[in-house]
Specification:
The complex is a heterodimer of chains A (513) and B (294). Chain A starts with a strand and ends in a 14-residue tail after the last helix. The longest helix of chain A has 16 residues. Chain A folds into three domains: 204 residues, Uridine Diphospho-n-acetylenolpyruvylglucosamine Reductase, domain 3 (2-Layer Sandwich), CATH 3.30.465; 132 residues, 2-Layer Sandwich (Alpha-Beta Plaits); 142 residues, Vanillyl-alcohol Oxidase, Chain A, domain 3 (3-Layer(aba) Sandwich). Chain A is built from 14 helices and 18 strands. A seven-stranded antiparallel β-sheet of chain A has the order 15-10-12-11-17-18-16. A five-stranded antiparallel β-sheet of chain A has the order 5-6-9-7-8. A four-stranded mixed β-sheet of chain A has the order 1-2-4-3, with helices on one face. Chain B has a four-stranded antiparallel β-sheet, with no helix packed on it. In chain B, strands 4-5-6-7 form a four-stranded antiparallel β-sheet, with no helix packed on it. By secondary structure, chain B is mainly beta. Chain B contains two helices and 22 strands. Classes of the chains: A alpha+beta (513), B mainly beta (294). At the A-B interface, loops of A face strand 11 and strand 17 of B.
Chain lengths: 513, 294
């Protein structure tokens, strides 16, 4: 049954919003109604009703979209699929995940059903719909690939030339072009996905061990900053490429300088066989002991218990050897804490940017980062962090660039620039600082034509469509930033023309046919 | 319709003239217009439509004198406020401020010098790409814009001073399928009936559709299929609002539709157009795409 929430409904005030409190920007940008659907048939009916009424439909699963794609829809219809959250064994074998399932529920459900896992993100409340169709990656990506690599089929509602909504079950053999586009091409570009299918999935790890180090900003110098970040990048450009290290996920949080703030390096080891062998993550963390003269005394080093929040695992430390490791059963570590906050409707404002890195940082790049992270924003407290995630491993299977819509298959690190605040009056200053910082950092190692962006080349491999940044649309080549230079975007455009010929599904960074 | 012999082009021009639009006046009005008038010609290089212009002319009889030129991206359609010295231009582009949409602008008009001054520009809704036609609603309370690229209509409130406000209503259309032919919505011309009804011709949908504005929303009142197999390319309405004229998008065949409450209730084919190449405007503007004589 569809529950329709219109402006005169008291629920509207909360339900028309999304997790990022920046959107919708104002009342005029808001949807006219929200259609809360429980089944695929509901979605089909709601979509058909919107199309026939000449109203633009947008789609919401978990409500975590970084930009305004879903809720900036003036007078339109927001189709909420969050109740399509079934995680189950498929009748024909394998597993199926409803587009509205939260990732935490997905992990729990798949583990309970078969002890298996999808290598996806770490925020519990992110919805599968947007996450998986944008590629999907997370702590197990180095070990198991990106989420879209494992996808076998999708149920999706598309709209024909004459406005008729059509349910399609697409896979490698049926509507294969659409199927490929849905494996990373981005959310709600071609229709409304209702179910994802996976024929086979890898086994979930047995345990998860977390440890980390942090370095205080109070005693930070530019040289030390460069050494820490270079050490991190060097590892993943060299040793981290070897398969025995792939169960390692690492995060380096390059936060803006604050009083008592810290630069954090955390290591998460996925114990795949129960051996509890910590040699690889220990070897990794040991590399950083040289970065601070106080390391031998362990005075200023802290564990990841003090790492910044924002969806990453926060674990209680325990001491083992030089590092304190926290060990938990994998499922408990993965779903405990409901990281990511309440589904959908948040009060924090956020802005995000991204970068895939193919090589270690250059010194010039880190000098620029340091300069910006130590620069004050007038009248505003900093709240930004550059999260440097480990990448590579099974994500870097070149042939999958041609089977999926995830072209980045040569990267070792994946960066997520994050800025959080609550006061709308700070929007302009923060967004300018953030954009200027990013532009400056990516003005050194790219060709003149692409200055200001991590365009594909020797150092970088573009951006991640699940971390969309509408600032990038100022560059005519923005589709190549996200979809590469090997013809993927023209392919997606052809799919768009074929399966969404009326451009029913559109937003600022949608595939433009 | 007069006794002129019609080409398809001439029909399109005349049809637009009846709708109070622009291109129509290229030949006819240059000989019959009042002794001293202003003309505005929109132009845009085909390969760089964003580098278009609006040119102002003084028209005295058959003589056109260039007055001024103002940059304006792809000014595909020009129209005047009925009472104020404000000119509106429809920018037929596919990107505005980096987003997939067109835009409309309002310009002040100095009737003495013919100079235009940009008052402001309003972007259209997402997907409203390549807007190509617009009409002011009754009392000039709104601007009704048709975008062929996205198959979308936008409604923008107009202040009493003639200023354009942000888009207040959007209607997203879809196309048609028949046998093995599928077409996209292509709303390429609009008209205002004397009773305030808005009319639009859509060659992709093959329809003539009337709209009403209800509670700031665009509501379809009637939709009639016309020119089956090809759709209507142009639309004009007789001054008394009793008839709409369209011509087929590919054949140029002319149809007259009797209108009752905005609904096309009776369609008749008119005599096929004959050839009589209209005279060119006296002033030469490269890549002219619109013209308005006021």
């Amino acid at each position: 049954m569809i529950a329709t929430v219109t402006r005169d409904d008291e629920r509207y005030a909360q339900l028309h919003r999304t997790r990022n409190a920046r959107f919708p920007k104002d009342d005029a940008d808001s949807v006219a109604r929200i259609e809360l659907c429980e089944t695929a048939e509901d979605v089909q009916a709601a979509l058909q009703r919107a199309v026939h009424a000449g109203l633009r439909p947008t789609v919401r699963s978990g409500g975590h979209c970084y930009e305004d794609f879903a809720v900036n829809n003036p007078g339109g219809v927001l189709i909420d699929v969050s109740k399509l959250n079934t995680v189950a064994a498929s009748p024909g074998g394998g597993w199926q995940v409803g587009a509205g399932a939260m990732l935490g529920d997905m992990y729990k459900g798949l583990y309970e059903l078969g002890g298996v896992n999808i290598p996806a993100g770490s925020c519990y409340t992110v919805g599968a719909g947007g996450h998986l169709s944008g590629g999907g990656y997370g702590l197990l990506t180095r070990q198991q690939g990106v989420s879209a690599d494992l996808l076998s089929a999708v149920d999706i509602l598309t709209v024909r030339h004459n406005g008729t909504v059509q349910l399609r079950h697409v896979n490698r053999h049926t509507d294969a072009d659409l199927f490929r586009a849905l494996r990373g091409g981005g959310g709600a570009n071609f229709g409304v996905i209702t179910v994802f299918y996976f024929d086979t999935l890898p086994a979930a790890p047995k345990q998860l061990m977390s440890g980390g180090l942090s370095f205080p900003w109070d005693t930070m110098t530019e040289d030390k900053f460069i050494e820490i970040a270079s050490t991190y990048g060097h590892y993943f450009a060299t040793r981290g490429c070897e398969p025995d290290t792939w169960p390692l996920f690492a995060l380096m949080g390059l936060s803006h300088k604050t009083e008592r703030g810290r630069i954090n390096v955390s290591a998460t080891w996925h114990d795949m066989d129960g051996s509890a062998d910590l040699r690889v993550p220990t070897e990794f963390l040991d590399l950083f002991l040289k970065c601070d003269t106080q390391v031998a005394e362990l005075k200023d080093l802290q564990t990841s218990a003090h790492a910044p929040s924002g969806g990453r695992f926060q674990t209680t430390p325990c001491v083992e050897g030089k590092h304190r490791w926290n060990t938990k059963p994998w499922l408990q570590a993965t779903v405990d804490g409901n990281s990511g906050g309440i589904k959908g409707y948040g009060s924090a404002r956020g802005k995000y940017k991204s970068c895939y890195m193919k090589q270690n940082f250059t010194t010039a790049e880190l000098k620029t980062m340091y300069a910006w992270l130590t620069r004050d924003i007038p009248n505003v407290n900093a709240g930004c962090v550059i999260s440097v995630d480990s990448y590579g491993g099974r994500a870097n299977q070149p042939h999958l660039a041609h089977e999926t819509a995830v072209p980045q298959r040569n990267s070792i690190l994946k960066l997520q620039y994050q800025m959080y605040w609550t006061n709308p009056d700070e929007d302009a200053a923060r967004l300018k600082y953030f954009d200027d910082m990013y532009t400056d950092i990516y003005s050194a190692n790219v060709a003149d034509a692409h200055v200001g962006t991590p365009f594909h080349g020797t150092n970088y491999e573009g951006c991640y469509i699940n971390y969309p940044d509408a600032d990038m649309t100022r560059y005519k080549f923005w589709p190549e930033l996200y979809y590469g230079t090997e013809g993927l975007y023209p392919f997606l455009q052809s799919v768009k023309k074929k399966y969404d010929p009326n451009n029913i599904f559109h937003y600022s960074m949608a595939v433009r046919a | 319709m007069d006794s002129r012999r019609w080409t398809r082009r001439a029909f399109g021009q005349a049809a637009l003239a009846l709708a109070g639009s622009s291109l129509a006046v290229q030949s006819g009005l240059s000989t019959t217009a009042a002794s001293k008038r202003l003309a505005f010609v929109g132009s845009a290089p085909p390969d760089q439509p964003e580098r278009g212009s609006i040119h102002s002319f003084r028209v005295v009889g058959d003589r056109w004198t260039a007055l001024a030129t103002l940059p304006a991206p792809a000014p595909a359609h020009l129209l005047m406020h009925p009472t104020l010295p404000v000119l509106y231009a429809v920018h037929a582009v596919d990107t505005w401020d980096h987003l997939p949409r067109g835009a409309v602008s309002a310009y002040s008009v100095d009737r003495q010098t013919g100079r235009l001054g940009l008052l402001h520009t309003q972007p259209l809704s997402l997907s409203a790409t390549y807007p190509c036609h617009a009409v002011l609603t009754a009392g000039a309370s709104h601007l009704f814009v048709a975008a062929v690229g996205g198959g979308i209509f936008n409604l923008l409130p107009v202040t009493t001073g003639g200023a354009l406000l942000p888009v207040s209503a959007i209607r997203k259309e879809f196309g048609s399928e028949e046998n093995s032919t599928a077409k996209l919505s292509t709303p390429d011309s609009t008209a205002l009936l004397p009773d305030g009804t808005l009319l639009a011709a859509d060659s992709g949908q093959e329809t003539l559709t009337s709209f009403a504005i209800e509670q700031d929303a665009l509501v379809v009142r009637h939709r009639t299929r016309v020119h089956p197999g090809e759709g209507p390319a142009r639309l004009s309405v007789s001054p008394d609002g009793r008839f709409a004229y369209t011509f087929g998008a590919t054949s140029g065949a002319v149809q007259r539709h009797r209108l009752v409450d905005g609904r096309a209730v009776q369609t008749a084919a008119l005599a096929p157009p004959m050839v009589d190449v209209p005279r060119e405007p006296k002033a030469h503007v490269q890549h002219a795409i619109s013209l308005l004589l006021v």
